[in-house]
Amino acid sequence: MKIPMYRVIDEMIRYNAGDPGLIHHALKVYAFSKAIGEEEGLSKAQQEILETAAVLHDIGIRESLRKYGNSDGTHQQIEGPPIAKEILQRLGAEEALIDRVCFLIAHHHVYTGVVGIDYRILIEADFLVNVYETPSMQKSADEILKNNFETEVGSRYFKALFLNGAEQ
Ligand SMILES: [Fe+2]
User: Fold this and answer.
1) pTM for the predicted model, two decimal places
2) Which backbone phi and psi does 62 adopt, to 5 degrees?
């Protein structure tokens, strides 16, 4: 059964209640993922996985902070998938979607051996938002573009945001 995205978004907002920064971050990553995925021509199934993963990609941050006092990627990647799995099972998502979304949540800070257009676009969308939210990253914009962006659309967005739209 296809789950309406508003239900996933609603769950993410409830889970992160009281932390508007986390909620805004997830919604921005979702919007970039959605637009990049649509223009890159993902299949319906890939697009659904990508959008769901984007909304839930940082769902492990709260639990990481509670357990370890920090939200290091390594902690989030352990804490996030079980939370996402519980939410998606409750919403009646299919097993294949849950498995891939949990894989993406667990790997979205792993930038080597990226296989799959959903995985690539999630990383790109997260960079589009993180480089904005962490201004110190902007001095490495050239490097970030070179090392992490492969899609035409994601690269175009990144240049427009951080490289004055320059053609590279
Ligand atoms: Fe993120």
Assistant:
1) 0.95
2) -60, -45
Instruction: Name the least confident of 71-75, 91-95, 159-163.
Output: 71-75
- Distance from the CA of 148 to the center of ligand 1, in angstroms? 14
Residue 17's CB is within 10 A of a number of other CB atoms, namely 10
**Conformational region of residue 113, where left means phi above 0, alpha means psi within -120 to 50, and beta covers everything else:** left
Distance in Å, CA 165 to ligand 1 centroid: 23
pLDDT per residue as tens digits for the range 92-143 = 999 999 999 999 999 998 888 888 999 999 999 999 999 999 999 999 999 9
State the distance from the centre of ligand 1 to the C-alpha of 82, rounded, in angstroms.
Answer: 17
- Residue 146 tokens read as 């070179």
60-64 contacts, C-beta under 8 A, 24 or more apart:
60/105, 61/22, 62/15, 62/16, 62/19, 62/22
Q: State the distance from the centre of ligand 1 to the C-alpha of 41, rounded, in angstroms.
A: 23
Question: Rounded to the nearest whole angstrom, what is the distance from the C-alpha of residue 157 to the centroid of ligand 1?
Answer: 17
